[in-house]
User: What shape does this take?
Amino acid sequence: MAAGAGGSVRDWVQAARLRTLPLAAATAMVGAALAARALHKAGELLDDRFWGTFVGVLLTVWVLQVLSNFANDYGDAEHGADGAQRTDRAVASGRIAPAAMKRAIVLTAVKALMLGVATVVWAAWGTMSLVVALGFVAAGLVSIGAAYRYTAGRSPYGYRGFGDVAVLAFFGWIGVVGTAVLASGGRFEAAWFLPATFVGAMGMAVLNLNNMRDLEGDTQAGKRTVAVRLGPERARRYHAAVVVGGWAALALYLWGADAGGWRGGMWIALLSLVWVKHVVFVVRTPDGAALDGELKKVALGTAVVALFLLLAQTR
Assistant: This one.
């Protein structure tokens, strides 16, 4: 380990894993798109409250994603899932000391909480009850805890195979629907859980790709991810089911639950064809290391779909 091991700027940027931020942004963009649709149906304009809420949620989910990445780097080194051979991991490779990473985790958690509270105050002031506002703050605290406890601390739930469920819940259902409720001034539609499922499923797909890539090391370290529990072949089939299920949920919303309310549906349908190629590649590729490049494709592809949805309601 390097002296001091405070880490260079490059080390911290790598530990933050900025390539995961587009996927996190999809949570805010889809939620804002749903809110904009609800406001349009009510005959209301998209004002400063809407845009301020969107920006606040976007910054908050980005910080939460970085918090999760820092905690993952720290936790996997702490529990032995990552060794010195993982030169892409800051703590395991010795470029950042565990104590320094732990301080960064605390500071990042504080930033996420401050951003989250500020966003709730901005969105809820004069439009929602104090109880509802406090509920959003409580959900934010739970999200911060979940980001840390995925692989860090005692008995992390990611080591017991619950990471996929957490991604679906926090970056999908809670993140998307919560954003929509906040940005729309307290409105709610049960159908919003369909596009929220799409975002959560794409997050699960990215996590599963990561776990299939690291399957051998995770097995040796006792990290019982879904990929480890299923084994290589069934994990690839599971991946296909997650991607197809996510897209089916989005299609059911756009062309079923809220048919006719969205422009650009043809382009989204064309974008879905990219995922067909992705699913075929994953199912036919037994080498986990060869799947690493698919992580970026799914993250960026999901962000593009989310951006299309947002533009369809805000242009």
